[in-house]
């Protein structure tokens, strides 16, 4: 009997194959979509049974229930989640353990994700000093009728502040419908961090996210005397020397 429990007999007459379905029937799935799989046993099967659900990507899970169906909800996070999925069940009858054949394959097709955008940092003086102008640009390839962009700092979405709400306020503005700018009039150390961005396109009546851009580390130099002050000081020194020399020449003549 122990051997029978370890190796259940596959008998379709006693344990007919279950059916596997998906609640959210869509023509196309995209990364980020939620999928609910339902494994249903035939009405002739009663009592406690153990459900097994598995995919071709190598994942599997099991659940014990007395219901005639088992529901599993998950999110499509990687392309390996696509492909055929199966389920089966096992139960004990007359002190023997029987296992059903696996269900027919349920194919989940995942569309290729939208390409990642390009994230750029622009500062007129190269190194970003406190108080300097800072522009973080997220540009998407190609053109689309409807897009929306998201910026992230250290993995969390960066909040949008209305321009003029504070001294270090930021504002967003569209660029030719294929990009967006995070514009800091006065950069401060609180704007430092690891920045990424992504965009969404409206397709098939819903917003489809892109891959995340490459990360760019933004470091705001907290030195009060920024590059802009250094350039102004250099201009005054060089200009002052120029006028001093000309004045001496004029005095000599």
TrEMBL record:
<feature type="transmembrane region" description="Helical">
    <location>
        <begin position="229"/>
        <end position="252"/>
    </location>
</feature>
<keyword id="KW-1133">Transmembrane helix</keyword>
<dbReference type="InterPro" id="IPR036179">
    <property type="entry name" value="Ig-like_dom_sf"/>
</dbReference>
<protein>
    <submittedName>
        <fullName>FCRL5 protein</fullName>
    </submittedName>
</protein>
<dbReference type="GO" id="GO:0002764">
    <property type="term" value="P:immune response-regulating signaling pathway"/>
</dbReference>
<dbReference type="Pfam" id="PF13895">
    <property type="entry name" value="Ig_2"/>
</dbReference>
<dbReference type="InterPro" id="IPR013783">
    <property type="entry name" value="Ig-like_fold"/>
</dbReference>
<keyword id="KW-0472">Membrane</keyword>
<keyword id="KW-0812">Transmembrane</keyword>
<feature type="domain" description="Ig-like">
    <location>
        <begin position="117"/>
        <end position="221"/>
    </location>
</feature>
<dbReference type="InterPro" id="IPR003599">
    <property type="entry name" value="Ig_sub"/>
</dbReference>
<keyword id="KW-1015">Disulfide bond</keyword>
<dbReference type="InterPro" id="IPR050412">
    <property type="entry name" value="Ig-like_Receptors_ImmuneReg"/>
</dbReference>
<dbReference type="InterPro" id="IPR007110">
    <property type="entry name" value="Ig-like_dom"/>
</dbReference>
């Amino acid at each position: 009997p122990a051997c029978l429990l370890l190796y259940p007999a596959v008998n379709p007459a006693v344990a007919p194959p279950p059916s596997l379905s998906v609640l959210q029937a869509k023509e196309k799935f995209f990364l980020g979509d939620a999928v609910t799989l339902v494994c249903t046993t035939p009405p002739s099967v009663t009592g406690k049974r153990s459900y097994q659900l598995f995919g071709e990507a190598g994942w599997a899970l099991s659940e014990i229930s007395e219901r005639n169906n088992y529901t599993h909800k998950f999110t499509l996070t990687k392309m390996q989640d696509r492909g055929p999925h199966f389920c089966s069940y096992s139960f004990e009858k007359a002190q023997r353990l029987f296992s059903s054949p696996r269900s027919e394959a349920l194919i989940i097709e995942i569309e290729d994700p939208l390409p990642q955008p390009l994230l750029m940092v622009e500062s007129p003086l190269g190194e970003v000093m406190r108080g300097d102008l800072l522009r973080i640009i997220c540009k998407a390839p190609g053109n689309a009728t409807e897009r929306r962009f998201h910026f992230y700092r250290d993995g969390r979405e960066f909040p949008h502040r209305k321009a003029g709400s504070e001294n270090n306020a930021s504002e967003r503005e569209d660029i030719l419908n294929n990009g967006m700018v995070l514009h800091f009039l006065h950069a401060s150390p609180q704007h430092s961090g690891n920045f990424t961005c992504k965009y969404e396109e409206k397709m098939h009546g819903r917003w489809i996210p892109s891959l995340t851009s490459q990360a760019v580390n933004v470091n705001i130099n907290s030195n009060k005397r920024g590059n802009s002050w250094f350039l102004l000081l250099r201009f005054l020194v060089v200009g002052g020397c120029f006028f001093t020399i000309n004045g001496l020449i004029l005095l000599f003549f």
